[in-house]
Automatic annotation (TrEMBL):
Molecular-function GO term, any one: DNA binding
InterPro entries, alphabetized: transpos_IS91, Transposase_32, Zn_Tnp
Name under which the protein is recorded: Transposase-like zinc-binding protein
A Pfam entry, by short name: Y2_Tnp
Lineage: Bacteria, Pseudomonadati, Pseudomonadota, Gammaproteobacteria, Chromatiales
Single Gene Ontology BP annotation: DNA transposition
Organism listed in the record: Thiocapsa rosea
Domain Transposase IS801/IS1294: 95-282
All copies of domain Transposase zinc-binding, residue ranges: 2-53
Length: 354
């Protein structure tokens, strides 16, 4: 049970199911993950690159999530690392964090991966930091062509190895000749790779990651109604602009659940991965070297005197990270009850001070 010290609002935070696909339970996990990532930020530009799979490949991903999603993340990272390491483009070893998303705003199946990339990297000999041109990371067309070629090569190898399953209208793709013919048009199609403008400093990177790393297909805040008409929620139509972009959609309960369950990942599939300088095996050593070359031994996000950092507390009455829905002030835990325990009657809100 939580209470606001400012307005006296009281609410109950129910037990978490701790499932990584739950819209409610991932808030705390996201905050913990972000706290661990703060120390990884460097005082350089960060870029946001998105790799998207064409619709035909997204269709066969329904029955091959582990293989197709794994290839999407792996090949996207390899593409960025390869082009960045090419002396014709950057000639450096960069670091990146890849986050898998499988949904569109209306919970349709739309597999893509968001990559947060350092705007530069270590030289091959590790003796200097190589920065990219201000405001420009890598050529999108070059990234798109290499991503397409490598992904189709890996997908063809997976089919030959028998790692892909095909059902229904795609059952004929189990034959190598049919699969090769199906891949042919995709080799000529332009694949979507989108590079956004650089983030406005490390703070903006954290703000972005806090919204995207632990998201699921829909959040509770987008749910409008659950009544005889169905389940109504808000969604964003990217084909329009302005105030007409935000719309409402009502689906029958079974269709709503079908769309949501499309995005449940196989057990053990990691949807947040780190590559290059940020790879777990050598992340600490690489970041120390990068900071030494950038003459920034202290992370700018954490650059406050140690004496000013709040000490950790195990007191259950300490302030939580959750804001009050009424006034925005911090909520404080005033009571905790265990499974099967009946909570006390909700206390009356505090009266306003004269």
């Amino acid at each position: 049970m939580e209470q606001c010290d400012a307005c006296g609002h009281i609410q109950i935070a129910y037990n978490s199911c701790r499932n990584r696909h739950c819209p409610k339970c991932q808030g705390a996990a996201a905050q913990q993950w972000l706290a661990a990532r703060e120390a990884d930020l460097l005082p350089v530009e960060y870029y946001h690159v998105v790799f998207t799979l064409p619709a035909p490949i997204a269709d066969i991903a329904y029955d091959n999530k582990r293989v197709v999603y794994g290839l999407l993340m792996q090949v996207a990272a390899e593409t960025l690392l390869s082009i960045a390491a090419d002396p014709k483009h950057l000639g450096a070893r960069i670091g990146l964090t890849a986050v898998l998303h499988t949904w569109g705003s209306a919970m349709t199946h739309h597999p893509h991966v968001h990559c947060i990339v350092t705007g530069g990297g270590l030289s091959p000999d590790g003796e200097r930091w190589v920065a990219c041109r201000p405001g420009f990371f890598l050529p999108v067309r070059v990234l798109s062509r290499l991503f397409r070629r490598r992904f189709l090569e890996q997908l063809g190898a997976a089919q030959q190895a028998g790692d892909l399953a095909f059902f229904g209208e795609h059952a004929h793709l189990a034959a190598p000749e049919a699969f090769a013919a199906w891949l042919a048009p995709l080799r000529r199609q332009e694949w979507v790779v989108y590079a956004k403008a650089p983030f406005a400093g490390p703070e903006a990177v954290l703000a972005y990651l806090s919204r995207y790393t632990h998201r699921v297909a829909i959040s509770n805040t987008r749910l409008i109604a659950d009544d005889a008409q169905g389940i109504t929620f808000t969604w964003k139509d990217y084909r329009t602009s302005g105030r007409h972009r935000h719309k409402r959609m009502t689906l029958a309960p079974e269709e709503f659940m079908r769309r949501f369950l499309l995005h449940v990942l196989p057990c053990g599939l990691h949807r947040i991965r780190h590559y290059g300088l940020l790879a777990n095996t050598a992340r600490v050593r690489n970041l120390e070297r990068a900071r030494a070359l950038l003459t920034a031994p202290v992370n700018p996000i954490l650059a406050i005197p140690v004496a000013m950092e709040p000490a950790a507390s195990s007191d259950p009455s300490t302030t939580t990270a959750r804001p009050c829905p009424c006034c925005g002030a911090p909520l404080r835990i005033i009571e905790t009850f265990m499974r099967g325990q009946v909570p006390r009657a909700v206390p009356s809100p505090r009266s306003a001070s004269p």
